[in-house]
Write a structure and sequence with these properties.
There is one protein chain. The protein has helices spanning 2-10, 43-51, 95-106, 121-134, 145-150, 157-164, 179-191, 206-222, 229-237, 241-249, 259-267, 271-288, 292-311, 323-332, 337-381, 386-423, 427-439, 447-454; strands spanning 19-23, 31-37, 68-74, 77-83, 111-117, 138-143, 153-155, 168-170, 312-314. By secondary structure, the chain is α/β, with parallel strands linked by helices. The chain has three domains: 2-191, P-loop containing nucleotide triphosphate hydrolases (Rossmann fold); 206-290, no CATH class; 337-454, no CATH class. Strands 1-3-4-2-5-6-8 form a seven-stranded mixed beta sheet, with helices on both faces. A two-stranded antiparallel sheet has the order 7-9. The longest helix is centred in the last third of the chain and has 45 residues, at 337-381.
Length: 461
C-alpha cells in the first residue's frame, strides 16, 4: 500500500517544484543534514538526487570512504548535506565508523537521514538504533522499496515510524520516487515542525541497565542539556578513548553549549567532576565484567528483531518465517560461529590454492617457457648487447612474468570469493565474531578480514 501512495504522490503536478539542486554551492546554509546508513543501501543515489551532483554509485559495499558534501534549497531554506561513509556500526574504532560517529555527535547536524535497505530491515535497524541513541533529530529513508515488493515483503512504514519515534519515508531513489516526501520530512524535522521522540533500547541485562542509570545521572548533573547522555554513558562504560578524551578536553560540552558558554565553562571546568565520571565508569565496567559489549550488542539485536517482527511480513504467508535470523543466530553464536567461520575460510583458502595451480602453470608455460626464449632469440638476432638483454629480458621481464603467473590466479579466485561472502552478508558476521578478541589488543574485528587476505602473500616483510 505504501508503494501505491508513493507513486501517486510522485505523479502529482507540484512534484519537485520547490527543490533547487545547488551541487557544491554550500558556502552558506540554514541547516546541516547528515546522510548515514549501511554500505550499499543507496546513500549516494539519495545524495545525487538532492544535490544534482554525480557522486559515483556502485553495487558494492564500502564505496564512500570520506565525507562528500553538497547542497540544496527547499522551501526557501538552504541545506548543506554531508554523505558519511557507509558503516554497519558506530561501536568500534575503524576509520569509517569514527568519521560517521564523530560528525553526528560533534558536527551537530540539524537532521540525520538514515538510509535503510527495505529488503534487509532488521540488519539495518542495528545502525538505526545506535544513531537514535546519539541524536534526537532523524529521518528514516526506507529505500529499495521496489526490491522489497519484488521479494514479496510488506513493510508498515507508519508502524515503523511509531516504533522508532521519527519520520519514516519509503523511497525508490533510483527512480526518484519518494524524494519529495523525504524533503518534506527533512524540512519538518530541521525547522522543528516535527518533534522526534526517538526509540531508546529496552533490552539488555539488569546489570547494564543499572550501570547506565547511575552513570547517566552523574553525566546529566555535570552536563545539563546533553541530549545523548545515555549514549555517552554507554561509550564510557566500554572505555571508548575518543569519548573519554572529549570529556576531559571539554569538547563534549561544546555539543550543547553556545561558543561563549563553552569558552566560559571550559576555562572554569571542574576537572575533579570529570575524573569522577570517568572513575565511576571504570568501576561499573569492572563490576559488569567482560560481557558488557556482548550485552549491549545483544540488546541492539533484540530490539531490532522485535521491531522488524512487528512491521515486516511476507505477503504470501501470515506468520513470517525469519530464516535470516535463524541463520544469523547460527553464524554469530559463540559455540557454532567460530567452527563455521573456520570451515568457510578453510574452503575459501583450499579453493584458492588448488584452483590457482592449473592457471598458474599455464601462465608460467606461456610467459616463461615460451615467450622468454623467443625474446632471448630476438635479442641475439638483432645483436642486442648482453647487459641490455639481461636487464630487459632476464631481469625485468622474467620478474614480471613470475609475479603474474604466481599472483594473478590466486587473486582472481580469492577476491571474487570474498566479494560473494560480503554480498551474502557473512563478512560483517566474521568481524562481529572476532571484534571482542581484536579489541583486547586495540584493534577492530574488520582487521581479521585483512589478516585473512595476508595469508596468501609469501613476500618477506
Amino acid at each position: 500500500m505504501a508503494n501505491h501512495q508513493l507513486l501517486n504522490c510522485e505523479q502529482c503536478p507540484i512534484h519537485d517544484s520547490t527543490l533547487q539542486k545547488l551541487g557544491l554551492n554550500n558556502d552558506s546554509w540554514d541547516f546541516v543534514v547528515a546522510l548515514a546508513g549501511n554500505p550499499n543501501t543507496g546513500k549516494s543515489t539519495i545524495f545525487n538526487a538532492l544535490t544534482g551532483l554525480r557522486q559515483h554509485t556502485g553495487n558494492w559495499p564500502g564505496k564512500t570512504v570520506t565525507r562528500m558534501e553538497g547542497a540544496f534549497s527547499y522551501e526557501n531554506k538552504r541545506y548543506k548535506i554531508v554523505d558519511l561513509p557507509g558503516t554497519y556500526s558506530l561501536l568500534s574504532t575503524s576509520t569509517d565508523e569514527e568519521i560517521a560517529r564523530n560528525f553526528i555527535l560533534f558536527g551537530k547536524p540539524d537532521v540525520t537521514v538514515i538510509v535503510v535497505d527495505a529488503t534487509r530491515l532488521e540488519r539495518n535497524l542495528n545502525l538505526v538504533l545506535q544513531i537514535l541513541e546519539i541524536t534526537n533529530r532523524a529521518v528514516i529513508c526506507l529505500n529499495l522499496m521496489d526490491e522489497a515488493k519484488r521479494h514479496q515483503l510488506e513493510i508498515d512504514s507508519r508502524r515503523l515510524s511509531k516504533e522508532l519515534g521519527v519520520p519514516v519515508v519509503p523511497t525508490v531513489a533510483r527512480q526518484n520516487l519518494g524524494i519529495q516526501q523525504l524533503l518534506r520530512a527533512i524540512h519538518e524535522v530541521a525547522s522543528g515542525q516535527y518533534q522526534c521522540r526517538p526509540h531508546r533500547l529496552r533490552s539488555g541485562s539488569r546489570e547494564l541497565k543499572t550501570a547506565l542509570r547511575e552513570l547517566v545521572e552523574k553525566i546529566e548533573t555535570h552536563f545539563p542539556g546533553l541530549n545523548n547522555a545515555r549514549w555517552v554513558a554507554l561509550r564510557l562504560l566500554e572505555g571508548d578513548p575518543y569519548i573519554t578524551e572529549a570529556l576531559r578536553t571539554g569538547e563534549l560540552a561544546g555539543i550543547y553549549q553556545t561558543d561563549s558558554q563553552f569558552e566560559s565553562n571550559n576555562n572554569n571546568k571542574n576537572d575533579s567532576a570529570v575524573d569522577e565520571i570517568i572513575h565511576q565508569a571504570n568501576n561499573l565496567r569492572w563490576e559488569i565484567g567482560d560481557d558488557l559489549h556482548d550485552s549491549f550488542v545483544e540488546a541492539i539485536y533484540q530490539d531490532a528483531a522485535q521491531i522488524a517482527d512487528r512491521v515486516v511480513r511476507k505477503s504470501d504467508e501470515s506468520p513470517r518465517f525469519d530464516w535470516e535470523r535463524r541463520l544469523d543466530n547460527l553464524l554469530t553464536n559463540k559455540w557454532t560461529g567460530f567452527p563455521i567461520m573456520l570451515l568457510i575460510l578453510a574452503v575459501v583458502f583450499w579453493l584458492t590454492i588448488v584452483g590457482a595451480n592449473f592457471p598458474s602453470s599455464l601462465l608460467a608455460n606461456l610467459l616463461i617457457d615460451t615467450i622468454h626464449p623467443s625474446l632471448k632469440t630476438l635479442a641475439a638476432n638483432i645483436h642486442m648487447p648482453a647487459w641490455l638483454s639481461g636487464l630487459l629480458f632476464d631481469g625485468m621481464y622474467l620478474s614480471m612474468a613470475w609475479v603474474v603467473s604466481v599472483m594473478l590466479p590466486p587473486m582472481a579466485i580469492f577476491f571474487p570469493l570474498f566479494t560473494l561472502l560480503e554480498d551474502f552478508g557473512y563478512l560483517p558476521r566474521v568481524a562481529f565474531n572476532l571484534d571482542h578478541i581484536f579489541k583486547r589488543v586495540g584493534a577492530h574485528g574488520k582487521q581479521a578480514l585483512t589478516m585473512a587476505m595476508g595469508y596468501g602473500c609469501n613476500a618477506a616483510g
